[in-house]
Amino acid sequence: MRKLRALFLVTVLVLCCMAVACGKGDDDGLIKVGVVNNPPSESGYREANVKDMENVFSEANGYKLQTFYSKSNDEQLQAAQGFITDGVDYLLISAAETTGWDDVLKKAKEAGVKVYLFDRMINVDESLYEAAVVSDMAAEGDTAVNWLLAQNLPEYKVIHIQGAMGSDAQIGRTGALDAQFASNKMTKVVQQTAAWDEAEAKKIVESVINSGEDFNVIYAENDGMAKGAVAALDEAGITHGVDGKVVIIGFDCNRWALRELLAGKWNYDGQCSPFQAQIISDLIKSGKAPATKKIINEEKGFDAKTLTQADIDTYGLGD
Amino acid sequence: MKKTTKKFSFNGFGQLTIPLIAIALLVVFNLIRDPGFFSIGISHNSNGNAVLSGNLISIINGASELAILAMGMTLVTAACGGQDISVGAAAAIAGSVFVKVLKASSSISGVTVILAFLCACVVAMIFGSFNGTLVAVFRIQPMIATLILYTCGRSIAYWINGGATPTVTSSIVNAIGSFIPGIPVPTPVIIVVVMGILFWLLFHFTSLRLFTQSVGINGSAARLNGIDARFIKLLSFIILGVCVAVSGCIGVSRLGLINHETLLLDVEMDTILAVAIGGNNLGGGKFKLSGSVIGAYVIQMLTITLYAMKVSSTDVKAYKAIVIILLVVIGSPVIKEKFSRFLARLSDKRRKVSVKGAEE
Amino acid sequence: MQEEYLLTMRRIDKRFPGVLALNGVDFTLRDGEIHALMGENGAGKSTLIKVLTGVYQMDGGEIRLEGKPMVIHSPQDAQKKGISTVYQEITLCPNLTVAENIFIGRGKGVWVRQKSLEKRADEILSKLGIPARSTQLLGSCSLAVQQMVAIARAVDMNCKVLILDEPTSSLDDKEVNRLFDLMRDLKSRGVGIIFVTHFLDQVYAVSDRITVLRNGELVGEYLTEELPQIQLVSKMIGKELEELSSLSETEEKKTEEKEILYEAEGLSSTEALPFDFAIRRGEVNGFTGLLGSGRSESVRAIFGADKVTGGTVRINGKPVKISKPVDAMKHGIGYLAEDRKRDGIIAELSVRENIILALQVMNGMFKPISRSESEAFADEYIKVLNIKTASRETPVGSLSGGNQQKVILARWLLTHPDYLILDEPTRGIDVGTKLEIQKLVLKLAEEGVSVTFISSEVEEMLRTCSRLIVMRDRHVVGELTGQDLNQTQVMKTIAGGEA
């Protein structure tokens, strides 16, 4: 009986894999696009990103889309190779790692496949791709910090919760705040990484509360960590948000986070736009080479006081 | 030369000596560093309830998931002589199921929460028996067998909800994760106590402890005494499944959100460490749940201490590693033997001195 | 007494915390002598050997080799000074050749000529009459030959004193004889041999002198031919053995009229060929045969210890299905396994937990035996079986072999079995306990319990069993009862009737 059960589970798993692998058809006059991306399970951001790609590069819009999702650079490289062999017209890549792509991109060039990078840059010669549509994380940080300065608080005592050290988002979003700490306009109460982990963020804030140190700003480098931080405040009965003692700043614009904003529990959420597909599609359809190699995806920051339900519907990620 | 050689059992505590010494050292260290470190205060949370607060509460509260997992892991370790490294991933699955069921109902009542928890339990037990089957029936090394779920568990958790970080807003869920109105003790701490009592009842009203230890120490002899070793091993994984579900649900309730990538991330290693610090033999056999629970609190106290010292959390892991290496080495049989020999020599000397004294 | 001694140990003391393991023990060994060192488990034999080989440092006394006082720092040191030990478990490398095993670890340099080594090894082997080739892998030789190779290695290292610690326990009779030939050969070359064994017959077959230890003290040194076996035993266990003789006199075993308790027809398992077997209430019978004859496999099939593949079983006339141990237990069968360490004790658990284990299994998981109840059970059986343990909570692994065996016996007695299978219950335990166990078997039979008894010592089986099933090459070849129950008849049947 137990053996049977195990066998059954394995079979189901295999079938699932096959179901995912299937789904090819013939094309007629459609533009063939191959997308190599990270898996949607990575984050809410990636999920929206993947959905956006699938929506924009649909058959209705005149595209034939092939996708491959993996966290592993090697698998991504193989998949890109496969797309080139398949004879796609365009190859869209959000690479897991910044290195190792030279050979594949050269082969793409030889085969006449045009390459667009999105979301993440790759360490290769600019001539190997048409353009890169990316977010400017540093700009996201600057926007947020500028907003914070505009609040004209009498003092800035900041708990800074960082993302996984070394990631683009962490480096960009930390930079702007570090500059403020350096110029003494803001005071660093604590600066710790929670590596995108909500529970860890909560522990960090909890330890500050227990130490009795005063603070009035929590700058968390993503929504989840902001939520963790807020949970710690709630347990200690410290007010936060629009009329509260502590200013809460998050990033990524998850829909649930924007709702917190709308409810006045948080103060600011910085966007990290996953919507690059339309920009790329416009470039493809225009038939012209893009003016610059690096195209910055424009991003907003939302203030709790000015946020509307419409903004949530348009810019919110997830559900 | 009968083997009545007097054994010096480490100050009489035996197995619990190392974790207790570790706790004592951490307490003393913290008191020297900051005499008010362990002071407990009463504050009012955002719902206006009077609740206990302070570092000690943070430690005990924060270690809840770890403590519960450590209990289950101890049982698996004892029966199978190996560890389940998929507990974090399985907890993400259980948590996702919990959220899925909660989100499926229009309004969240006590009944829905219980239903959601039961669903999470069932799913976690199914995954537990999957692991258990691989280990007990197919005799795969536990670490290898659970590597499968460790690798794919968080993806499965993602499939359950689709969205990367679905949230749940409910006062009941919030109460499970933080405080029940009118009770100043954090709910997760209460759940740990309840789990402890459940385990105590389990060991008191069944002979599971004896059977598990027998299977772990000498599987062949246990079989010849009529114990179904496969069943015992499978059962240990299913019980661990319940622990996984409970801690997964606590983790979700704390924040009202499930992030399948970060929920109880890396908890498996901490859990195994808690079992080891608790003086349990990772090769199976005799075990003490209390040791593992204390081990969990040691790990958490260490983490909180390092945070309080504002050690950068990237460095925290390194410091933790150093302390844990020390603990494990001190607890190793080699050092224990050396130490008891040292004690024996001391008492020998004392005896000689007293004999001399008597002669004079 | 101006005899020239090869080895003299005078007034050796060795203390362990709380225990005086050796108390002023003397021991002497002459050139070209085989000297048996005897004593019960815990008498101090192995401590004495370990002091001599440098494993332990003595606390007092003096060791002289060829008249010169010496201090032995370590086993390596002992070897260098000419004292070599061959243990019961082979400590050589089975995946190296015989030649490599003889020379390993004592070459002067890394570059040794393989051919010359092999030539020398062959010389040594043929000189000692060991039936092995130097190029053979050690693992492909029989256990006896492996043991001989270990001895050859010791001899080639110019050993003056050779210690053989239970060398014969895993050998069959033929192999034992071959080993004895080698020992006699070495003796003629002037090597002094210290022979430690449990087998009394072997002591008389090969040794010249016997030293007996008891409780860490010297009882005496005797010429083998002047010390009758029965006296040796009495010196070892320290009391006169009326019981031994009285045991063999309770010959009246009248179970023929009792009804059959257990009956198997064509029973077979993955390890045992089909066989028929039956036992009556209160009967004691036994399986005998050489090692590997299938005697253990047969009783394992009865208990369901191996996967049962066929046959019908009736208990009290009713057909039953026994496919795993717990089935057998539920039908009142208990089984004490051959390998105590591997299949018997749960070493780290306490005496108490070990005793209640089988009963607890039969009660089921949801009816745990309460602490006080289990303590009462443990205390009762510790007393009844005279188990020597510091307390009922002592881990059973720290007990001596004989007491561990008693704990397992207690475990099965506690289940009040109708039928008890004892596979080698007396192997490797001291004479006193052996006797107690034999008496216990007879007492159980009197109370109506059926017992199947297996022992490598035929003597023992003849004393206790009323029927012997003889096996050879995994087949039952005979059944002996009444007049036929004597050593010669058993040997004849084992050997094939005509011998």
Structural overview:
The complex is a heterotrimer of chains A (319), B (360) and C (499). Chain A is α/β, with parallel strands linked by helices and 319 residues long. Chain A contains 11 helices and 12 strands. Chain A has helices at 2-21, 44-56, 73-86, 102-110, 137-150, 168-182, 198-211, 223-236, 255-262, 277-286, 309-315, and strands at residues 31-37, 63-69, 90-93, 114-118, 131-134, 157-162, 187-193, 217-220, 247-251, 268-270, 294-296, 301-303. In chain A, helix 5 (137-150) packs parallel to helix 6 (168-182) and helix 9 runs antiparallel to helix 11. The longest helix of chain B is centred in the middle third of the chain and has 27 residues, at 110-136. Chain B has one domain: ABC transporter involved in vitamin B12 uptake, BtuC. Chain B has a two-stranded antiparallel sheet with strand order 1-2. Chain B has helices at 17-33, 55-62, 64-80, 87-104, 110-136, 142-161, 171-177, 187-205, 208-217, 219-224, 229-255, 267-277, 289-308, 313-330, 333-359, and strands at 41-44, 50-53. Chain B is mostly helical. Chain C has 499 residues and is an alpha/beta fold. Chain C folds into 2 domains: 7-245, 3-Layer(aba) Sandwich (Rossmann fold); 247-495, Rossmann fold. Chain C has helices at residues 45-52, 75-80, 98-103, 114-128, 143-156, 173-188, 200-206, 229-237, 242-249, 295-303, 325-330, 340-344, 351-363, 371-384, 401-414, 431-446, 458-464, 487-495; strands spanning 5-16, 19-30, 34-38, 60-65, 68-69, 83-86, 161-165, 192-196, 209-214, 217-223, 260-269, 275-280, 284-288, 308-315, 318-320, 333-336, 419-423, 450-454, 467-472, 475-481. Chain C has a 6-stranded mixed β-sheet, sandwiched between helices. In chain C, strand 17, helix 16 and strand 18 (450-454) form a beta-alpha-beta unit. Chain C starts with a strand and ends with a helix. Chains in contact: A-B, B-C.
